[in-house]
Amino acid sequence: MQPRFVGRLSLADAVTVSNGALGFLAISVATTNPELAARLVLLAAVADGLDGVLARHVGSSAAGPYLDSLADVASFAVAPALLVVAMVRQTWAFDTLRVGVALAGGALFVGMAIVRLGLYTVYDTDDDVTEGVPTTLASVILAAGVLAGFTEPLVLVALMFLLAGLMVSTVTYPDLLARDALIMGVVHSLAVLVPDFQGRAFPYALLTLALAYLVLSPHFYWRATTGKTAGATEGKRS
Q1: Which residues are CB-contacts of 131 (< 8 A; sequence separation ≥ 6)?
Q2: Which of 128, 139, 144, 174 allows an S-S link to 80, with CB 3.0 to 4.6 Å?
Q3: pLDDT per residue over 4-36, tens digit each?
Q4: pTM, whole model, 2 decimals?
Q5: DSSP letter for each residue of 20-76
């Protein structure tokens, strides 16, 4: 007897499931090897982008949007929050108050990510814009920051609180155009594969691009939005 999912799930769905598995691996190693955890979070983000491309060009199943949000809880909610807490504990291990604040920030980050993912699945999947910072973007900023060497606990914790609030804000973010998604994907992949190249050039570049999109795209990103997915956009980012 075949498993229930045989014949029901698409190739895009399989990539989505791999995203969630990578999130689990990142969670597993976050406390012992934060840099590897950061690379796994970024690799999960690559899978998240790839499943959107596959769904667009090859097709997906009716379960696709739900699988995407479930996988993202592991990869872009729990994993980056635990990564930040692990970095905090390396520096503030014996400071109960500061570690407690970091844990509270992590819990808030996970909670707001879950809320955003649920709202996204219901309201934004078919649009070319979304309200609130995408969970993928929030996790990429945190992971790329760690990989680039920005490991000051105070900065990471403050950024985690800020991103938690922005994920459930009403700020509108556009989907990336195909050409920009390709550029971002190349830089993203290089940051995972060769993070130490030329003084961590690719993690720095990825962090710069992610922060630029976070700050500038709601007001300055060129796009023609129609309320439905535009032909020039590539993949959905939850």
Answers
A1: 119, 123, 124, 169, 170, 171, 172, 173
A2: 139
A3: 665 567 888 889 999 999 999 999 999 999 999
A4: 0.90
A5: HHHHHHHHHHTTT-HHHHHHHHHHHHHHHHHHHHHHHHT---TTHHHHHHHHHHIII
